[in-house]
Amino acid sequence: MPGSVVSQAKQQLKMIIDAYLLESEVVRVLEACDYADAAHDGVTRKSGEPYILHPIAVSCILAHMRLDPETLMAALLHDVIEDTEFNKDDISLKFGKTVAELVDGVTKLSQSSDKEFNKAASFRKILQATLQDPRVIIIKLADRYHNMTTLDALRTDKRARIAKETFEIFVPMARLVGMNEMADNLEHLCYQNLDLDMYNNIQDALLQTKPKRCEYQTKWENNLTDLLQNNKITGRIKKKNNNIELLRHFVKNDIDLQELTHSHAFEIILQSIADCDRLADILRNSFQVLHYEDHIRRPLPGGNQSLMMRLKGEETTLSLTIQTELMRKAARFGVVLGENAPQACRSAIQASMQNLNVLVDGECAKTTFNELLDYLHQEKIWVYTPHGHLHELPQGATAVDFAYSASLFLGNHAVGAKINGETKPLSTPLQSGQVIEIITDVLATPNPDWLSFINTQKARRALQNILREQDIDEQRLVGEQALNRALKLFNRSIKDITQADWNNVLEWRHLSSLDHLYEQIAVGDLLPQLVANHLFAQDAPQDSASSDRLIQGTDGIDIKYAHCCNPVLDDPIQGHLSRRGLIVHRSRCHNLLHEQHLHPENIMPLQWNTENIEDVSFTAFLSINIPMNDEQISELIYQCRKEKVGVESVHTHDNKTYVNIVVHNRKQIAEVIRNLRMHFGFPRIARLAQPVNTVETSIAS
């Protein structure tokens, strides 16, 4: 029986590749299949199936995408080095160096007994190999997809662990290289394995409303068909399975069950960009447009190009993706298309790859892995050079970050920037779609003040390397000048600092001389703004949570938490330097963004110190999109306390319930929101920046 199953799998692979490969290429792929079968002989998976069925399935997935023979051969052999007695040289001798390199690229490392280190080192190795040959990540994604479809044989805890890893790493990696169809399939399987109760509730809601949904879908389709015909636009309308998108929005708490079941989606595939723009104009005149984004001119990660519109109907909403056939293909397969992909797609993927290249420069595998996670999940912007070259940067990046992203020369000699043709300071935060031109002077040198507002590791490393290369006397002069500029915020200068003040600063920094202080400032080890703050900020006593131990590198600094956004431990944060001291804001706080536009030199990157700290408490504010009676409020309090979350107050207002809770960190907020949604029928629950000031029901502690 096992032999029969394997034979059937091999025959299926042959049928797929016969359709597009040369006869000689088919022979080579099947040789690799037989080689892998012999190498894995006698080995079974957790399900009891012969192990060879897995690599054959991975190769079939790639063959459906019409990948080249070398990729298919590497997919068949991808576990040989890791799990059998054969090595890279054996594969190279039999199938060539390229296939061997691809197989080695996806092979995990087992360098020590530390599983976390091995995991980090393996991902770093995959990154390095992907930068040499993108087919490595294509094989790895297909491998992970097939593994995700066969999780039933594993323990529940292991399934959840693999799904979490897939969601955090492989889904965003797939989107990064434009393989959005693969990303959608992986994401769907993740939801199924991470939170089965929530997944089943959503599926039940979709099933119960299916007849009504189909009725509305037909109406929308007829309206759109008439619109194309009446305006003589040639194209096709395709119902889009938007279950993945609905799941994503629901899990992220963007919509509730009612909205979930009243949303529909279509793709409209047209012949040209001009047709796409024309249809968008017609739709604007025919429907109420709730949302519009032009991603033809401003591609999404992976180079995904389309016009995206959300229309309002009488009882439902419609999401439209309008694109050409080539754009649709590129959005599904991305890097798989290679040189056949549109230029915008290739440019976007190349920009992402350049950022990955910066990540693998570090020596520590665990640091690289953590930086990879940060990069994959941070919000990004896309900006362009005057020649149309795309650069991908994190949200909040400045003109200096762009300069170093473009080249070391531009960064090291930048004196200003033109943003959409208008001259702006180098500290100006950038926005997606802008055209950036850096103004340079060959005599100019980097300014240590830039360290207070740059947002990318590449710019920070490059700047610090340049600063450290300066002559020691020059470093001291640069450090003194930087501190003098920082003191201007307090209407002071170095001349106003007394010997007692200097002694205080040196004791605070554990330094023996003023020269050492200036050197630290000059090379970026110490921000001059922090020294100025330590000397002259006249602030009230700190909050009950000790700021000194919660924020990295701020010992001896007067710190307050902003009441406009109320950050809690593990929120992304930035600091705003004021005459009252250093104010900690959540990174997307509107007040912080306003101040960043006015005085970017006073904004500082901050990190929480999560090691060796005792429990601290923060207040967070939630709104629940249902009014609650006394019995439900009692149940809410009980559910919160089960999660070891305190409840300060609960009140209802305008058909919503507002709750002030006491938590230790951001993760605890997410957990309590998840449990409250499950318990009360999946309403939308939002975290508010500030409490809503109405009549409250106070809760005894």
Can you walk through the features of this model?
With 701 residues, the chain is α+β, with helices and mostly antiparallel strands. The protein has 6 domains: 2-149, Hypothetical protein af1432, CATH 1.10.3210.10; 200-341, Beta Polymerase, domain 2 (2-Layer Sandwich), CATH 3.30.460; 344-465, Ubiquitin-like (UB roll); 470-536, no CATH class; 547-605, no CATH class; 618-698, Ribosomal protein S10 (Alpha-Beta Plaits, 2-Layer Sandwich). The protein is 50% helix and 15% strand. It has 30 helices and 19 strands. A hairpin with a 2-residue loop joins strand 16 (646-653) and strand 17. Helix 4 crosses helix 9 (135-149) and helix 11 packs across helix 12. The longest helix is centred in the first third of the chain and has 21 residues, at 156-176. The radius of gyration is 29 Å and the shape is globular. Keywords: Hydrolase. Pfam families: HD_4 (PF13328), TGS (PF02824). Pathway: Purine metabolism; ppGpp biosynthesis; ppGpp from GDP: step 1/1.
Keywords:
Ubiquitin-like (UB roll); globular; Beta Polymerase, domain 2; 701 residues; disordered C terminus; 6 domains; 30 helices; Hypothetical protein af1432; 19 strands; alpha+beta
**Biggest β-sheet: strands ordered side by side in the sheet:** 1-2-5-4-3
Number of domains as seen in the coordinates: 6
Number of helices: 30
Low-confidence stretches: 539-547, 694-701
Mean pLDDT: 87
Query: Based on CA inertia axes, which overall geometry fits?
Result: globular
Q: Give me the CATH fold name of the largest domain.
A: Hypothetical protein af1432
Q: What percent of the residues sit in helical stretches (DSSP H or I)?
A: 40-55%
Number of E-state strands: 19
Class based on secondary structure composition and strand pairing: alpha+beta
Q: By CATH's scheme, which homologous superfamily of the largest domain applies?
A: Hypothetical protein af1432
Instruction: Report the major sheet.
Output: 5 strands, mixed
Distance between the termini: 66 Å
Assembly state (oligomeric)? single chain
- What is the percentage of strand-forming residues? 5-15%
| CATH top level assignment of the largest domain | Mainly Alpha
